Amino acid sequence: MCKGWVSWMIIWVIGISFSRLAYVTSSQDTVAGQVKQRKLGSTDSSLTEKSLHGLYQRPRRQLGESNPGLAASYMDELYRDYSTARKELVGDFKKCNRIAVVYMCFNRAEVIRRSLPAVMRSEGVEKFDLFISQDGGADYIINQDLHFPESSSIAYIRHKANLCTGLHHHFVKTFTFDIMGYDGLIIIEEDNVVHPQALQLLAQMIDLSIDQREIGIVSLLDMDNSAFLDDRKYAEGVIRVNGTMGHLWVYGFHKSRYEAVRSDLYDYFNTIKGQDYGSKHEPPLSDKIKALLVSKGFPADGELSQDRFFIYSLEKSGYRLRYQTMFRFFEPIGYLGLHHRHTEEEFFAMFGRGMFNGRIRPQAAFDVTKDVTVVFDIKAGVRDHINRVWLKYFPNEVHDKLVVNTFNSLMEGRLNGVEAMADIKNAGIKYLASKSGKN
To answer: Do 12 and 152 lie in a common domain?
Structure first.
C-alpha cells in the first residue's frame, strides 16, 4: 500500500470515535483517493505514478546477443530500395487486404506458443494480411514448430539481425506503410494473448478514427475494469483518452497518422541506429535521445522509448487522443519477462487476470463520448456496481466523491479496476472489524 493510503486510514480510523456517519464518509474519501491515484498508464501526473514508473517502464532488453552495427547495416540495406526489400522480406507474398497485422516476437518459445496461435485463430483473420516479424539472433524458428495454414495470408519474416525493440518497431511501421503500402496497421507484441474478436474490433476502431482529427492510435485497454461496467451495453464501446494513457501492447492506426509523423520517426531511428538500445537510459545514447526530444519541443524529461516518442510525435501533429476499448480484449502475460521484471503475482496485482470472455459485434463499435445520455448511464452504472459491494459492509450508500473519482478515472483511461475494487472491499472489511472491536 502507498503512504497516502496509510495516512488516509489513520484519519479514517480516528474518525470512528466521533460518529458512524463521520466514519463512513471518511472511508469513502479514502477509497476515492485511492481510485484517483490509479493512473498506471501515464507518467506525468502524480507522485504515485512516478513511484511506479521504474516498476513498469524498465528498459526492455531483449534476450540474446545484439550487434548494433549489423542491425544498422541491415536496416539501411532494406531502405535503399523498397521493391528489393519487399522481395527479400516476403518473396512472392500477394497483398490481399487493406490492413496488416504484425505480430512482433523474439526468442521466447513458451510465450509465442501461447500468443501466436490466438492471433491465427482470430475470427475474420482472412480479412487481414498477417506478418510474423521475429528478431534475428533467435534460436527458436517459429515455422519449424507451428503450422501456418496454406489458406491464410501469412508471411514469416526472420530478420538477419537482432533489431531490439527500437529498430524493430520502426521496421514494422515502415514495412507496413512504405514497403507494402497498407492502409492500416495492427501491432501485437508477443506477450499478449488476444481475444478472438480483437482484430475485428481494432480494425473497426481504425475506421472510426480516420475522420476524427484528434485521434491518433486505437488500442485495447490494458487494465481490467469489468467490475464497474455493464458488458451488455458497453462491450463495443470505445472512449477518447489522453494519448499517453496505457501501454502500446496491442494497438493500431491508419496510414495518415504514420505519414503525419514519418519524418519524426526517422529522426528517432537515425538517433538510435548503431547504438545499444538496451542501454537507452544510459549515456551516451540517453543524452542523444534527450537532445532529440528537446529539439522537437517534446518534454525534456520525457520517456526515451520509441513508443513514447511516437505518441509525442502524434501529439505534435494534433493527434493528442486515442480511442481505447472499455473492456480488455487481450490477456497480458508480460510477467514472463519482456515488459516487466517481477513475479506473476505482482504483475497480476497491477493488471488483473484474464480478458473479456463474452462475444461482441465488432462492427457495432461506437464512441460513447458522443452521446451525453450514454455518459450519464455509465456513471449511474458505476454507482450501482460500487454499491453492490459497498452495501455489504456499510449502512449507507456510497456518496458522490467516490463515484465521481471512479467514473472520471474510467473515462480518462487511467482506472485500475482490479485494485480500485480491492480498495473498496478492504475499506469495508476494516469498517466491519472496527464495529466488532477488532483492530
So the answer is: no
Of 362, 397, 413, the residue that ends a domain is: 362
CB-based burial, 38-47: b 16+ in 10 Å, e otherwise: bbbbbbeeee
Q: Where are the alpha helices (DSSP H) in 143-212?
A: 164-174, 198-209
Closest CA to 163 of 279, 75, 264: 75
Cβ contact 135:164 at 8 Å: yes
Domain harbouring 343, CATH code: 3.90.550.10
Lowest mean pLDDT among 54-58, 73-77, 110-114: 54-58
Render 262-302 in DSSP notation, one character per residue.
HHHHHHHHHHHTTS-GGGTTSTTHHHHHHHHHHHHT--TTS
Contact 132, 155 (CB under 8 A): yes
DSSP string, 340-367: --S-HHHHHHHH-S----S---GGG-EE
Q: Phi/psi class of residue 374: alpha, beta or left (left: φ > 0; alpha: ψ in -120 to 50)?
A: alpha
Average pLDDT over residues 103-110: 92
**pTM, entire model:** 0.86
Dihedral angle sign, alpha carbons of residues 291, 296, 297, 300: negative
**Contact between residue 156 and residue 62 where contact means Cβ atoms under 8 Å apart:** no
Residue 51 lies in a domain: no
* Residue 377 CA from chain centroid, whole number: 26
What tens digit of pLDDT does each residue of 344-354 get? 777 777 776 77
Query: 233 near 354, Cβ under 8 Å?
Result: no
The answer to whether the bond into 284 is cis (omega within 30° of 0) is yes
* For residues 265-278, average pLDDT: 97
Identify whether residues 203 and 261 lie together within a single domain: yes
**Residues 231, 358: contact at Cβ < 8 Å?**
yes
Joined grid coordinates for residue 341: 521484471
Per the CB < 8 A criterion, the answer to whether 59 and 303 are in contact is no
Q: In this structure, what is the dihedral angle of CA atoms 323, 328, 334, 336, given to the nearest 10 degrees? A: -160
3-state secondary structure of 97: coil
Confidence of residue 39 (pLDDT cuts 50, 70, 90): very low
110, with CB counted inside 10 A (0-12, 13-18, 19+), is exposed
